[in-house]
User: What shape does this take?
Amino acid sequence: MTAAAIIEITVAAGPWAKIADAAAWAERAAQAALAVAGVRLLPGVELSVVLNDDDAVRALNRDWRGKDSATNVLSFPAAGPDQLAAAPHLGDVVLAGETLLREAAAEGRPPHHHLAHLVVHGTLHLLGHDHEDDAEAERMEALERQALATLGVPDPYAEAAPARAAG
Assistant: This one.
């Protein structure tokens, strides 16, 4: 629906060197989410992905969501769903490295696959998708599966009780 977006990847802090090509995986995952989302966007629309550590994400989660704990991914939309077609910047996706690595190990998934999943999840939040009820969650998870499949990443929901992206 749109030309490739400009994805700014920032490695701010955390154990990201433990994931080979983390920034490239993050960029590809964000592009994949945009491609499957079915949302009309401006050509060259921008978004940022920040690869950070648990302490920074915990502070953001506390300050913006009132939850004093680290989480795997946070999304900060810059525009509402009805404004996306004219928005030059979609917002920011921030990931917590230590949490991501812990979850990937617990789920027996390669860390770069979990990274891709969390970036797709966070990007879909920027586009107005959510998982507040079962129907929304099913729609969002279907888009996640579709985007991840284009990257060769297996369905993260196929195994019994994986940790859901917090978003």
Q: What stands out?
A: The first strand starts at residue 6 and ends at 11. Strands lie at 6-11, 46-52, 73-77, 89-96. Residues 153 and 162 are 15 Å apart (CA to CA).
